[in-house]
Design a protein that fits this description.
Elements: H1 9-25, H2 31-38, H3 44-56, E1 60-61, E2 70-71, H4 73-83, H5 91-101, H6 108-123, E3 126-130, E4 139-148, E5 151-158, E6 162-169, H7 176-190, H8 195-206, H9 213-229, E7 239-241, H10 245-248, H11 256-268, H12 270-277, E8 284-288, E9 300-309, E10 312-321, H13 326-344
Antiparallel strand pairs: 1-2, 3-7, 3-10, 4-5, 5-6, 8-9, 9-10
């Protein structure tokens, strides 16, 4: 990873000026523009020479049609790690976040949806979030609803307002009183445990618990199929996205091919889930362009902050082109993460 020792103070200042210019204008930065806007105390010719040195070191490149330079991923990395001065959210931005999220006691997925949406609006990037892993969520209540004589609906009411449903197939007809009895037993023996704990101890907790033959047969189904019935980890709904329109309006996505790539990312969600899931334990995480393990994300930066409440861990942040105002976005992401934590406690 680049460190300040690799560059002189003058090179760092020119690099900072190029990064700022390109972030603001999306146009290659020329030496005349840098000299005019930043007052570095050197001539445009000297700035041009320094920009050439930075290009040789891999921090800048210039399109063939332009004399100006564009920052590389390496430039953004050293900017974030060694040059940038963080800009905390403004009073207006903090007020907007509090107004959108403050006082919400909704289900966690609704909190995250609103948080990703408002974060996207404030940063003009794509707001992203990952809900806590369902395996670590506590089951508060479970309901068994008889849909047909051979099919039951199992309703999980998890902590933080999360609700999930699955069907349970039963051989033959189960009398309604037995369904009610088993529902009561399941709540008595399993409520207050995480789904992971339930799967690990289910046979011991349910064995010989029912009084009737029909009840025992139904409980035996839960014991035999417990690993599948109480495993909700395969769901993809834990990825929450704001509006992709924020990215669509940026010049990086003006071409049809780039727009198609963006739509594939946001509609499929599998790749984003994989990229975001690994960040639950990291605190603040910034992955720039080619640093992303998957080449399909090589044109994007992900800025995320993990949140934790009551043992539940998730991620909130933004995704956008590598040309983003890192100093502003990092502060907004971290501030939003702390607000989400407060709402989930």
């Amino acid at each position: 990873m680049p460190t300040p020792e690799h560059l002189t103070e003058r090179q760092l200042r020119v690099l900072e000026a190029v990064v700022h210019t390109y972030i603001q204008t999306a146009e290659p930065a020329g030496s005349q523009t840098i000299a005019r806007r930043f007052g570095l105390g050197v001539s445009p010719a000297t700035i041009r020479n320094i920009m050439g040195e930075l290009e040789e070191k891999g921090y800048l490149f210039h399109p063939h049609t332009s004399a100006g330079r564009i920052p590389t991923d390496r430039a953004y990395r050293i900017y974030v790690d060694a040059i940038m001065r963080l800009s905390p959210p403004s009073n207006e931005e903090q007020h907007t976040l509090r107004a959108e999220l403050g006082g919400m006691r909704s289900a966690i997925e609704e909190v995250l949806r609103r948080a990703a949406q408002v974060l996207g609006v404030l940063t003009q990037e794509l707001g992203v979030a990952v809900a806590p892993a369902l395996d670590q969520m506590v089951m508060e209540r479970l309901e068994l609803v008889q849909v047909t004589s051979e099919r039951l609906l199992l309703v999980f009411n998890l902590r933080s307002g999360v609700v999930r449903t699955i069907f349970v197939e039963v051989p033959g007809s189960v009398p309604p009183p037995s369904v009610l009895q088993v529902s009561q037993i399941l709540n008595q023996r399993l409520a207050g445990l995480t789904l992971q704990e339930i799967r690990g101890t289910l046979p011991d907790r349910l064995r010989d618990a029912a009084e009737t033959q029909d009840g025992r047969e139904l409980l035996n189904i839960f014991i035999a199929e417990g690993d599948g019935l109480f495993d909700l980890s395969s769901e993809d709904s834990s990825v929450v996205l704001g509006s992709a329109q924020m990215l669509a309006d940026q010049p990086e996505f003006a071409s049809n091919s780039r727009m198609r790539d963006l739509l594939r990312l946001t509609e499929g969600r599998g790749l984003l889930k994989q990229a975001l899931e690994s960040r639950r334990q990291r605190g603040l995480s910034i992955t720039i362009g080619g640093e992303n393990p998957d080449t399909r994300l090589s044109d994007f930066t992900l800025v995320t902050s993990s949140y934790e409440a009551g043992g539940l861990k998730g991620v909130i942040g933004v995704m956008g082109p590598t040309r983003m105002p890192y100093d502003k976005i990092i502060g907004l992401v971290e501030h939003t993460s702390r607000l989400v934590e407060g709402l989930l406690e």
